[in-house]
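Per your request, structure below.
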């Protein structure tokens, strides 16, 4: 047993330090008792909660998000248009549109039209999914459109999304698009945290960094 003030060796039943005279706490004294633990508490009472830095940014409203979406749509069409034009030429879409039904052999041209529509859906929809999911789960936490105007996508705790989470958010937009009059999107203009319907479904936020 040692004195907490001077470090001198003490007898186990000593009440005072023989060197400096400091009182020695006993098992019954208040000083020797540990502070009572507060269940679930990891900070002093009254201390402010720790808030992730990203949640200190304001929420992004409808119009900022709409502008970002327009930029993203333009980028996607610029990339997809040359591919779709090439496929249209290769599959004879022009022949299908101009002569379908005139001759039996036009069945093959019509088949080319069906194939074109199929590849259009796969390329544009699949490309959109990868674009949004990969970009929003990247270190940027944003697509090029969002990055251009200073927006980021996070979960409800302000953390970066995983690829799976960002994928869920993308497919939740299908539900949002089913709501008439774009109300699912317009919700971002008047809900408390500026969340669109797909943000509620996926548990995400869009924040404005600048």
């Amino acid at each position: 047993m040692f004195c907490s003030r001077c470090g001198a060796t003490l007898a186990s039943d000593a009440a005072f330090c023989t060197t400096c005279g400091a009182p020695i706490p006993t098992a019954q004294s208040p000083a020797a008792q540990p502070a009572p633990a507060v269940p679930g508490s990891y900070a002093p009472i009254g201390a402010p909660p720790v808030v992730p830095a990203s949640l200190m940014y304001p929420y992004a409203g409808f119009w900022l998000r709409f502008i970002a979406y327009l930029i993203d749509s333009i980028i996607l069409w610029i990339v997809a248009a040359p591919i779709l034009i090439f496929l249209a030429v290769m599959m004879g879409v022009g022949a299908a549109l101009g002569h379908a039904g005139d001759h039996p052999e036009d069945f093959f041209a019509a088949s080319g039209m069906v194939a074109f529509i199929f590849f259009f859906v796969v390329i544009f929809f699949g490309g959109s999914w990868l674009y949004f999911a990969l970009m929003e789960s990247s270190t940027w936490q944003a697509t090029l459109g969002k990055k251009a105007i200073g927006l980021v996508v996070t979960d409800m705790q302000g953390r970066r999304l995983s690829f799976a989470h960002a994928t869920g958010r993308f497919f939740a937009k299908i539900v949002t698009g089913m709501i008439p009059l774009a109300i699912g999107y317009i919700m971002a203009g008047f809900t408390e945290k500026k969340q669109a319907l797909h943000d509620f479904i996926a548990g995400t936020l869009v924040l404005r960094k600048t």
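Confidence is low (pLDDT under 50) at residues 27-35, 37-43.

Regards,
D.
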